[in-house]
Design goal:
Two copies of one chain form a homodimer.
Chain A: E1 4-6, E2 17-19, H1 22-29, E3 38-43, E4 48-56, E5 61-69, E6 77-82, H2 86-99, E7 103-107, H3 124-138, E8 146-149, H4 152-164, E9 168-172, E10 188-192, H5 200-208, E11 212-214, H6 223-234
Parallel strand pairs in A: 1-3, 6-7, 6-10, 7-8, 9-10, 9-11
Antiparallel strand pairs in A: 2-5, 3-4, 4-5
Helix pairs in contact in A: 2-3, 2-6
Chain lengths: 235, 235
């Protein structure tokens, strides 16, 4: 926890922040904070700064917040991802928030197992929890929007063209395609397929919507490694 | 399992390969292979090709190997990594093999918890198992060498200068440094520190050995995400 995140509703009428959950445990056990110490804090979707520890014991810590910094800018990157298996989805949600991806769209594909759409990880509260873990890691406060699109065709035909407009739009796909570019000055939209890849019909639809198909090289990477290495390459 | 890996010692005197472990289960349950089908196979540290299924049942599968392909080239990249916590180490071992990193050196640092050196993950058989998982993913057969250096100073003073020679050598470190370059024509040596970063003494020693300190941007990434995004950026 590189940043203690809190919601505005957690502030008392005196403007003080009381924490009594896992964050308290972390302050005590990992950071060994005492009265008078300061802690990096951030209001979810708001400003960051520090909290001065006014009191702390095993029951509750009371912090006096000073919120004088803006959160870091998001990357100018929209990620469109075929819904991965739940275990990988958790890691990708954390990484999306950690890297500062601006938006995540989870889409369907023939090779997305239907059961993946039933995972409790897609519960909005659970998505939020994993995103918060990523924000805590990289010291950001702003939750990126995550949308689910359970039907491929309406997404690529009706929504994708608007997302593509004005952006370098790339579909990372295995095969003999030009290599993925190494940087991006303007905004980017990046599409990553399921394990096994999009089927040819889906590739054609994504290309028709304005995406350029690029290759990541001869190796088949796990989806999470493909995503993080593409982010490092593009940004 | 995108590639079924086997050891030379598993071949019978008739040159046939019998599998009766998790690989058999995978052939049956995930790939649904039957007699006459072919399977992508590779000899560990040897050639790749395909195996024709001569017989298969719930006890054993017998494959006739044709090994007519070289494994993919490794990346010209040596990774030097402060030993991460065991959970992350497992994922990094897989990723190192998956991306085709040429060599991995695990080193000590003041911020590496001493207990990390006791993890069973560092058992050579366990390291091998995680590396094999990465090779199976990206269809490679060659196990990258992994060395452990439990003392920082002898490593940076006695071994590192030889590794650095003739290579672009980069230390990815948080702070106000030039950004990490975006590609590498020659060989690269990449050093990544522990959670919390190398201490100033360690940074100075690494720089004295010939490493150039570079930044990954303002966000603090988890070690595994830092490594995979650096690989995507450099390669």
């Amino acid at each position: 926890m590189n940043l203690l995140l809190f919601s505005r509703s957690e502030l008392g009428s005196d403007g003080l922040l009381s924490v009594d959950d896992g964050r308290l445990q972390h302050l005590l056990e990992v950071h060994g904070k005492e009265v008078g110490d300061t802690v990096r804090i951030g209001e979810i979707n708001g400003r960051m700064g520090h909290g001065k520890v006014l009191s702390i014991n095993t029951e509750v810590a009371v912090l006096e917040p000073t919120l004088d910094q803006l959160p870091p800018a998001k990357l100018p990157l929209i990620l469109v991802l075929a819904l991965p298996r739940p275990k990988m989805l958790r890691r990708i949600l954390r990484a999306v928030a950690e890297f500062g991806v601006a938006e995540l769209h989870l889409i369907n594909s023939l090779r997305v197992e239907k059961s993946f759409w039933q995972t409790p990880v897609l519960d909005p509260d659970t998505i939020r929890e994993y995103l918060l873990q990523g924000l805590e890691q990289s010291r950001d406060t702003v939750l990126p929007p995550v949308s689910c699109h359970r039907r491929f065709k309406p997404f690529v035909e009706d929504l994708l063209p608007d997302l593509v407009r004005g952006r370098q739009s790339l579909l990372a796909h295995p095969g003999n395609y030009p290599p993925c570019p190494r940087s991006t000055d303007s905004g980017t939209l990046l599409v990553v397929g399921p394990e096994g890849g999009f089927i040819p019909y889906e590739v054609a639809k994504l290309e028709a919507a304005g995406c350029k198909t690029v290759s990541l090289g001869p190796r088949i990477l796990r989806v999470e490694n493909a995503v993080t290495s593409l982010l490092g390459r593009l940004l």
